[in-house]
Amino acid sequence: MLPNPQLEEKLDPRIKRTRALIEQAFLDLLTEKGFHAVTVQDITARAEINRATFYAHFSDKYALLDHSIRQEFHRELEKRTLSACHYSEDNLRAVIVTVCEFIAWASEGCISSENQFESLLETQVKNQVQELLLLWLEQTACDVDPSIAATAASWAIYGLALKWNHDKNRPPVEEFSTQVLPLIISNLRLIPERA
After folding, report:
1. pLDDT digits (tens, 9 = 90+) for 79-102
2. Cα distances (Å, whole numbers) of residue 190 to 40, 84, 89, 184
């Protein structure tokens, strides 16, 4: 589910600031130590908060990981203003590039290299891409249920991006996105506009 910007805006600025400190400390520690080695004590020390404050925001480091992946991917989509766009081949290509780059970032940051968290990364990315595609499809003619088309395309995008990330001789992401774009378009089952 895409984070709700209205809900985030309603949060007290102190809560936002504290969450941002916790998230940044966590992401820095992930890069340095990997998920298994990071403790709540490490996070609280780096963020300069006490344990009670941490637990007021997150039940444990697993909840923080889930939240962080969701937020980071949402930021990537927002940075490219994709949630404010409509369907076009260029926007779809931008989604493919975003997913590829995010998976590569997560791999480098020691998140997805730990197998048990690959599924968490996969769930967050596929869900947000599916919601975005569904938003676009509801504004476009599609010859199947938009929910089914968005699901198929989000799974295809994630799977292809994962394959790209694992490929030792992978092409540049822009080239790859151009190669796979026709496959994703076919999943969306769009009805061509008549002139």
Report:
1. 887 777 788 899 999 999 999 999
2. 47, 20, 11, 11
